[in-house]
Design brief:
By secondary structure, the chain is mainly α. Helix content is about 80%, strand content about 0%. Helix 1 crosses helix 8, helix 4 crosses helix 11 and helix 10 crosses helix 11. It starts with 16 loop residues before the first helix and ends with a helix.
Length: about 475
């Protein structure tokens, strides 16, 4: 297969921009899926397919039972994969087309379906998208960082570049998604035919970005295995899980990832409800969310400099501070558009700093786990992180449905009650503040940045024997 990745096989090499961009593009298509699920899936269910918000939340919550298990299974599969393309990249090629098709089907619920038949359809297709195909791409994609380089700075850079492309996808979605719906729907964004046509476009993004990522990356961190010899990372699933739960830093990142992705659902999925029902104009969704996404995008170009000066951990903490100030600010400023934009910019700066560091920090925790326990768990370690993210997104979506139902939200109503507006404001502003403060407290006990140089030195000596 054609490749534009750097030719070197040295795992300690400094990566070229072709490698970095190639890896980052891989997240562009998946970020559209992620964005659709967090920002528009509840809106689609309640206002296009006319599913009760509480029922929709329950369906999503039940699906999380399968979601977490599938991530661990996929992590085990990645650890046991040995192909010409390596452990991880081959799965991007295998799963990109199934993911594109399943996502199209999820947002194309037939109008003839009613009652239990509709609920079963949503449950089955939702799980195919999240528990099967997205998992089978996202777990390998995250694993590529640890399989590409052992250099701590380069891992941080890859994580940052990945988040840049995720943010580009978010900006594109904020700017164009509803415009495309209005165009294909003849001015009505709630027409099913419009959603189907737009999802075909997104399916093309999913496939193209996966193929480009495979061509632009190379797995260099491999162990030489003699014919008939058992690979060193081929351990039992139980051994891998035990080693992960002995890894305090990895557990820290699991919990923080869950909280951050729960928060992402609250602000991205809640934004359309907040703009339409609290601020009174659905068109405000685009400037509010783009203020966040564009500032997040811009911040990520500066996070490598902060990472060099302060380390990944401190940069992450600074991001959390920016986020809590931003969310608290939007909760206090009311409908003042100037302040709303400014506080959303502050949210974006915080998300850019924290998000840009997260995946590099995860790769470091997996190295720490190998140093501490002697068990290499690249696939399983990233699988559980992926599970934490998807649980955050899924439970966040479920919580959103329950909060809307508890507030008395009425499907497709022209105006909502004061209690429904209060529920929307709580999930958009104050619930994120609570979870960010929790993350900040947890991160006070994270000291891995200082320990990593000696850990990497010890691992290099161990692997050379």
């Amino acid at each position: 297969m054609f490749s534009f990745a750097s030719k070197t096989n040295d795992p300690n090499t400094k990566l070229g921009w072709n490698d970095r961009i190639g890896y980052g593009i891989g997240n562009y298509g998946m970020a559209w899926v992620n964005g659709l699920m967090s920002a528009f899936f509840m809106t689609y269910l309640t206002d296009v397919s006319l599913v009760d918000a509480g029922v929709a939340g329950t369906i999503i919550a039940l699906s999380k039972i399968f979601d977490g298990v599938s991530d661990l299974i996929m992590g085990r599969i990645v650890d046991g994969t040995h192909s010409k393309l390596g452990k991880a990249r081959v799965w991007l090629l295998r799963m990109c087309i199934p993911l594109a098709i399943a996502t199209l089907l999820l947002f194309s619920i037939p109008a003839s379906m009613t009652g239990m038949v509709k609920y079963v359809y949503i449950f089955v297709i939702y799980n195919l998208v999240n528990s099967v195909f997205y998992t089978a791409m996202f777990v390998p994609y995250n694993s590529i960082i640890a399989l590409t380089t052992t250099d701590g700075y380069e891992r941080g850079m890859l994580g940052n570049i990945s988040m840049i492309f995720q943010t580009i996808a978010n900006i594109c979605m904020n700017t164009f998604f509803m415009r495309w719906l209005l165009f294909f729907g003849g001015g009505d964004m709630y027409q099913q035919s419009a959603w189907t046509k737009v999802l075909i476009i997104i399916g093309i993004f999913i496939v193209a970005s996966a193929v480009i990522c495979v061509m632009g990356t190379k797995e260099r961190v491999n162990e030489d295995v003699a014919p008939g010899e058992k690979p060193k990372d081929d351990v039992s699933a139980l051994t891998a899980v035990k080693s992960l739960f002995m890894n305090r830093y990895w557990l820290t990142m699991v919990l923080c990832m869950f909280c951050i992705f729960f928060i992402i659902v609250m602000y991205s999925g809640g934004a359309i409800f907040y703009a339409r029902d609290v601020l009174g104009d659905v068109a405000l969704y685009t400037p509010i969310n783009n203020a966040l996404s564009i500032s997040q995008f811009a911040t990520m170009f500066f996070t490598p400099f902060f990472m060099k000066k302060f380390g990944k951990h401190r940069t992450y903490q600074l991001g959390l501070i920016g986020m809590v100030l931003g969310f608290g600010g939007t909760g206090l400023c009311g409908p003042n558009m100037v302040l709303l934009i400014l506080f959303n910019i502050l949210k974006g700066i915080g998300l850019g700093a924290a998000g840009g560091m997260a995946f590099g920090m995860v790769a470091d925790t997996i190295e720490y786990g190998e140093w501490k326990t002697g068990v290499k768990t690249v696939g399983m370690g990233n699988a559980a992180i992926s599970a934490a993210q998807k649980l955050g997104l899924g439970i966040g979506q479920a919580a959103m449905g329950w909060i809307l139902a508890a507030g008395g939200y009425v499907n497709a109503a022209a105006t909502q009650s004061d209690s429904a507006k209060a529920a929307i404001s709580f999930m958009y502003n104050w619930l994120p503040v609570i979870l960010i403060v929790l993350c900040f407290v947890i991160m006070l006990f994270y000291k891995l940045d200082k320990e990593m140089p000696q850990i990497l030195k010890d691992l290099e000596e161990r692997r050379s024997k």
